[in-house]
Design a protein that fits this description.
The chain is of the alpha/beta class. The protein is 62% helix and 10% strand. An 8-stranded mixed beta sheet has the order 3-2-4-1-5-6-7-8, with helices on both faces. Helix 12 packs parallel to helix 13. It is elongated, with a radius of gyration of 29 Å.
Length: 419
């Protein structure tokens, strides 16, 4: 089974089931539920009998052992062991319910996440994918003209010229080797090949590595106006909901209002904040912020830095100084350096990524405003041209709309109308 069908089955199963369910099916389900409840009661009764018998066997076994050794059996000790055994069985019963409930919660959260992808990629789907569908309907056979139009559609979707050239070579090769004639058959291959280009035989992870022996430090870089401070606030909110103690550090001291904006976010979502007056040395802010994080046992430190890309030399020196400060306080230095890019800027965003990669060690990309562009192909282009994986994507204005990037959910959200 190709990736196309795998993803289709993974994410479309639940929604199609909901759409096709009729009143008759609902009634049947109610009857099945009643039967299931009765059956469960019988199973519970039977299980109780078996457990009672096992408890008795355990008691007799303990008594036999004590007797064979000719030791007096203390009545109180016997009662305590009996209670422990019964508690253990009760724990087993209780574990089954949470594990089932946990799976239901996880499934519900996952479905919600898929829905966010679907909604957030609507513009890209309506622009990019609708053109692919139109192209498939236009041609009955695969011709050079078909490939020319396909290439143009991909470039217009910001997939990137180099990525598109590589993709087209692979497509032509597969068409020739597999003897494919119909454009309709290429729908699956297009999805498969775009996925292969992104993954590129690598084990990709969008997860953040959290330290156990001190605060995890994450630096954020990016030019002004890309939504860097807002992204930090959204990620802090997400981490807080996962039970982490989060500190925001405002080290973008040269942009007017940047420190105050981050402080406002900290108050809004009720997390810690450290900052100084505008114009303060960014490295000193980071130093004092990390000291505070260590003293007050914070789990995560999110650091906002300056984004004056027009002055690469000064920015490079500033980031180097910040990293030296972190190295002096945290073994191994910063755990992540995330570059924030506005998805609506298209190829300009890719240029920014290349420039920042020259300045500092970027470990991941955060793509903001992906819901506001019809050119969702930038996700593929950035990975192909910069070699850095996308770790988070912004799919809305709300504080809960920052999503951990999942390539399969992205592919589904983008190509849903073709599945």
């Amino acid at each position: 089974m190709g990736l196309f069908n795998k993803i289709k089955n993974m994410f479309s199963k639940d929604s199609s089931k909901e759409e096709k369910e009729t009143i008759v099916e609902k009634n049947n389900k109610d009857e099945e539920k009643e039967i299931e409840e009765d059956t469960n009661e019988e199973v519970k009764e039977k299980s109780k009998e078996i457990k009672d018998a096992e408890i008795i066997d355990k008691k007799e076994e303990k008594v036999d052992k004590k007797s064979s050794k000719k030791e007096s059996y203390d009545e109180d000790e016997y009662d305590e062991e009996e209670e422990e055994l019964e508690d253990a069985y009760e724990d087993d019963e209780e574990e089954e319910v949470p594990s089932k409930k946990k799976k239901e919660i996880v499934d519900k959260i996952d479905r919600k996440s898929v829905n966010v992808y679907e909604k957030g990629l609507t513009k890209s789907r309506e622009g990019f994918v609708s053109k692919l569908i139109g192209l498939t309907n236009k041609y009955k056979k695969i011709t050079d003209e078909y490939f020319d139009e396909l290439e143009e559609i991909l470039i217009m979707a910001d997939v990137g010229v180099n990525t598109v050239m590589s993709f087209m070579d692979r497509m032509r090769d597969r068409v020739r080797k597999e003897g494919i004639n119909s454009p309709d058959e290429l729908k699956e291959i297009i999805v498969d090949e775009l996925f292969i280009i992104y993954v590129n035989d690598q084990v990709l992870s969008s997860k953040i590595h959290y330290r156990e022996d001190g605060p995890t430090v994450i630096l954020f870089v990016g030019v002004n106006g890309v939504g860097k401070t807002t992204t930090i606030g959204k990620l802090a909110n997400k981490l807080k909901s996962e039970g982490k103690k989060v500190l925001l550090v405002g080290a973008d001291t040269f942009r007017a209002g940047a420190v105050a904006q981050l402080d406002e976010w900290a108050k809004k979502i009720d997390v810690g904040f450290y900052g100084k007056e505008e114009g303060a040395d960014p490295a000193s802010v980071v130093y004092d912020g990390i000291v505070k994080a260590k003293e007050e046992k914070y789990d995560i430190v999110l650091v906002d830095t300056a984004g004056r890309l027009q002055n690469k030399v000064n920015l490079m020196k500033e980031l180097e100084k910040i990293n030296r400060v972190i190295d002096s306080l945290i073994t191994g230095g910063a755990d992540e350096t995330l570059l924030v890019i506005d998805a609506t800027t298209g190829q300009n965003g890719i240029s920014q990524a290349k420039s920042f990669k020259e300045i500092t060690n970027i470990t991941g990309i955060v793509l903001t405003k992906l819901d506001g562009t019809a050119k969702g192909g930038i996700v593929l282009a950035i990975k192909e041209e910069v070699g850095v994986p996308v770790k988070y994507i912004g799919l809305g204005e709300g504080k809960d709309d920052l999503q951990v990037f999942d390539i399969e959910k992205y592919i589904y959200g983008l190509f849903k109308d073709m599945m």
